[in-house]
């Protein structure tokens, strides 16, 4: 939703699930999500570092056997 807003310049959009539930705004997206405090690139970097550490541990374990 945030990407759609950014790419099209939309500032508000109806939230519809069978009926009108309300209006979503850019402000709603910014205040309800944590991508400002913890951007996706930081999260992905942390996940990659964790996967690398796990892979190294597996390699070390297999070398020792």
Fold and architecture overview:
- This protein is an alpha+beta fold and 65 residues long.
- It has 2 domains: 33 residues, no CATH class; 29 residues.
- Strands 1-2 form a two-stranded antiparallel ribbon.
- A hairpin with a 3-residue loop joins strand 1 and strand 2.
- The protein is elongated, with a radius of gyration of 20 Å.
- The mean pLDDT is 82.
Structural topology:
Blueprint lengths: L1 H7 L3 E5 L3 E6 H7 L7 H25 L1
Antiparallel strand pairs: 1-2
Largest sheet: 2 strands, antiparallel
How much is the average pLDDT? 82
Strand content: 15-25%
Q: What is the CA-CA span between the terminal residues?
A: 50 Å
Number of helices: 3
Order the strands across the largest sheet as they lie in space: 1-2
- Shape verdict: elongated
Structural class: alpha+beta
Order of helices and strands: HEEHH
Integer-rounded radius of gyration: 20 Å
Task: Give the number of DSSP strands.
Answer: 2
Proportion of residues in helical segments: 55-70%
Q: pLDDT under 50 segments (min length 5)?
A: none
Number of domains: 2
Which features characterize this protein?
65 residues; alpha+beta; 2 domains; two-stranded antiparallel sheet; 2 strands; 60% helix
Report a brief summary of the structure.
By secondary structure, this protein is α+β, with helices and mostly antiparallel strands.
């Amino acid at each position: 939703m945030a990407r759609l807003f950014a790419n099209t310049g939309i500032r508000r959009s109806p939230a519809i699930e069978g009926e009108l539930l309300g209006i979503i705004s850019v402000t709603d997206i910014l205040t309800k999500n944590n991508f400002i405090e913890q951007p996706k690139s930081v999260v992905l970097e942390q996940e990659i570092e964790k996967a690398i550490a796990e892979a190294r541990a597996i390699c070390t374990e297999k070398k020792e056997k």
